[in-house]
Each structure stands twice: as structure tokens, then as C-alpha cells.
Amino acid sequence: MNPASIDAGNALGFAHFIAQADAVGKSLLVVLIVMSALSWYLIAVRGVAMSLRKRRSARFLSFFWNASTLDQVSDEIATHGARDPFSHLAAHAMHARRHHERYGAAKLAEAGTQQEFLTRTIKKVLDEETAALERGLTALATIGATAPFVGLFGTVWGVYHALVAIGMSGAGTLDKVAGPVGEALIMTGIGLAVAIPAVIGYNALTRANRVLLAELDSFAFELMTFLSTGHALSSAATTPVNVKPMRQDATALAPRAALAREA
């Protein structure tokens, strides 16, 4: 093998591409690096926050439905704070009911009946929790959608300059063209490497948020019913968390089957 061809092959690569890139190419590479760092930061921070939020929510729900009175729940929140969406919602709802019972509709923001004021308070908390859960997702979606095009633009820019340099040198053989063009394609690969984790992280966080918000909305309905009537729905008050409902025993079904046959 010709030593000159070996040296030329070793000279090509990512380092050679960086050395030959102009200000535009290097700027695009810096943009992709920043986008990648931001996406991984958002994925890590929001993922850890979601894990903690789920763990604290499960702990609070277990305590809430096993508490004997709302005062016990209020004392628990006052002691440990509202550190999850469910305790935050419960704290504001109980405070709204007590405030309306004590002061009535003293301001325009408190106008209406107690149930109407409680409904507005719960809806406001739900909107706040939704906004908190969606924080950072817009940036992830933007990175996932634009990173491939940023990399593609860098590739087009690099190919253009590579072809101009080849045309000026007058050497249009394959060994002279393949190296610079292949180096320019590195930008497309970097763009995909930035976009794929961002898209996966966005989809995972969006699904987790959707599940949590559905559970929070169901809890808001249960809490509204309990605060309005003083009685919780039987399904939520008697069924423990993460316990499947029991199936009917075969012995209990036998009398019903006999009556059906006689009929």
C-alpha cells in the first residue's frame, strides 16, 4: 500500500473537518453542542423531578385516604409541606373552603357560592400544576424538530466549500472528492445524534405528565365531592392504593346460577 495514501487517509476525519471548517461551520457545530447539552439537562432534571413527584404523590394519597379527618390531613401538610401536586391541590382546596366559610364573598375573586369558589380554586391549581409539568418540554420539542435541519445545513455548507476547493485544485477524482464530502456529512450525523434523544425524552415526559394529570384530575373530582358533601366516593375511600379488586367467589355465584336455571 502506498504510504502517501495512508497518510492522506489518516489526515481525514473529524479533527480535519474542524480544522478546515470556516466560521459558519464552527458556529453551527457550537449550536448543536449547546442544544445537545440543554436537551440532556432537561431530560435529566425533569426525569428526576417526575420520579420524586410520583413517589411523594403515592405517599400522600395513601395517607389522605387513610386519614380519619381533614384536620389530620391539614396538619400533615402544615408539618411536611405540599411537595407534590396532590397535596398542593388538597391544601388549596381546604384553605378555600375554610376561607369562604369564615369570610364569605368579601372580594370579587371570591364571588359566588362556596362550591363555585372551591371549583375555581381547584381549576386554578390544576392549571398551575399543568404549567409546572410542561416546563421545559417546549425546548425539548424545538431541539428535536430543528437539530436535524441545523446539521443538514452544516452538511450543505461543508459540501459546497469542499466542491469549491476541489474545483479550484482541478482534481476531480473520487479519492479527492470522497474525503471532504464525507467530512461534511459528519454534521448531519451530529444533528441526528442531538435530535433523537430529545424526541425520545419529550415523548417519555409527555406521556408521564399525561398519566399524572389524569390521576390528578380524578383526585380533584374526589376531593371536590368530599369537601362539598362531607363524604368521599366509596371506590376511592375503601380501595387501597395499588390493590386490584377481588373477584367473586364461585360459592357466591352458585345460588345465582341455580335461580337462573329454575327461572
Describe what you observe in this structure:
With 263 residues, the chain is an all-alpha fold. The chain has one domain. Helix content is 82%, strand content 0%. It has 11 helices and no strands. Helix 5 packs antiparallel against helix 6 (114-133), helix 5 packs parallel to helix 9 (186-229) and helix 7 (137-169) runs antiparallel to helix 9 (186-229). It is rod-shaped. The termini are far apart. The model is unreliable at 1-10 and 233-263 (pLDDT under 50).
Supply the helix-strand structural class: mainly alpha
Q: How much helix is in the residues?
A: over 70%
Strand content: under 5%
The overall pLDDT average reads: 77
Poorly predicted runs of 5 or more residues = 1-10, 233-263
How many discrete structural domains? Answer: 1
Query: Roughly how many Å apart are the termini?
Result: 96 Å
Could you describe the largest sheet, including whether it forms a barrel?
A: none
Order of helices and strands: HHHHHHHHHHH
Q: How many helices? A: 11
Task: Specify the oligomeric state.
Answer: single chain
- Overall number of strands: 0
Which shape, going by the Cα principal axes? rod-shaped
Q: What Rg do the Cα atoms give?
A: 31 Å
